[in-house]
């Protein structure tokens, strides 16, 4: 194994650990926005690390093109989709009645 | 490299199992949309790991298709279930 293969293996393992962290966060966190915070880690950093591992395994321009395209489209579409989901979640949460029913008074 | 592949697939499987739990359990449709998006990203990670370990880069277009597919699914779910369907 060369140094590039070691780096590719490290990137693969780090991306998989991020995916596991996202799964744990999706189960443990309570609200939709918290789950979005946990879920964006493999969506952006994990996928980018795996794409970097693919390029490190075969560092040519012929593989760099599709990998760059996949990475850019993933980053752009994930941000837009997260914006849509967060707006919908926030609108529904703010339109719901509060739980305690009375505003807290701190004076 | 096979040991790395086994460990990576094991971690991805544990994460995907937790995400599937949230996908079936999720109290609102937006939670399911988030879980579906994360599951798509995990499928991309698994495809990339397979390509690296098996030295077979013929599944590069799958990554592009999965990226755009997750975007369409999440955005359409957020649009349809924005105000209702608790």
TrEMBL record, chain A:
Pfam families: PhaG_MnhG_YufB. The keyword Metal-binding does not apply. Keywords: Membrane, Transmembrane, Transmembrane helix. The keyword Calcium does not apply. The chain crosses the membrane at residues 6-27, 39-57, 63-86. GO terms for molecular function: sodium:proton antiporter activity. InterPro entries: PhaG_MnhG_YufB (IPR005133). Belongs to the CPA3 antiporters (TC 2.A.63) subunit G family. This is Sodium:proton antiporter.
UniProtKB/TrEMBL annotation, chain B:
Keywords: Cell membrane, Membrane, Transmembrane, Transmembrane helix, Transport. GO terms for molecular function: sodium:proton antiporter activity. It is found in: Cell membrane. GO terms for cellular component: plasma membrane. InterPro entries: MrpF/PhaF-like. Belongs to the CPA3 antiporters (TC 2.A.63) subunit F family. This is Cation:proton antiporter. It comes from Nonomuraea deserti.
């Amino acid at each position: 194994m060369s140094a590039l293969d070691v780096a590719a293996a490290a990137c693969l393992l780090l991306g998989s650990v991020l995916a596991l962290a996202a799964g744990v966060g999706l189960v443990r966190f309570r609200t939709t926005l918290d789950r979005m915070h946990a879920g964006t880690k493999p969506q952006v950093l994990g996928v980018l690390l795996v794409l970097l591992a693919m390029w490190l395994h075969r560092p040519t321009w012929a593989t760099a093109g599709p990998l760059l395209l996949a990475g850019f489209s993933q980053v752009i579409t994930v941000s837009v989709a997260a914006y849509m989901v967060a707006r919908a979640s926030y609108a529904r949460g703010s339109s719901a009645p509060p739980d305690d029913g009375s505003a807290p008074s701190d004076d | 490299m096979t040991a790395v592949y086994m460990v990576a697939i094991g971690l991805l499987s544990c994460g995907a199992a937790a995400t599937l739990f949230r996908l079936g359990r999720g109290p609102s449709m937006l939670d399911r949309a988030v879980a579906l998006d994360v599951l798509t990203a995990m499928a991309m990670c698994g495809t990339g790991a397979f390509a690296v370990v098996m030295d077979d880069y013929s599944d590069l277009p799958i990554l592009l298709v999965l990226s755009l597919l997750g975007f369409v699914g999440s955005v359409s779910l957020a649009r349809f279930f924005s105000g209702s369907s608790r």
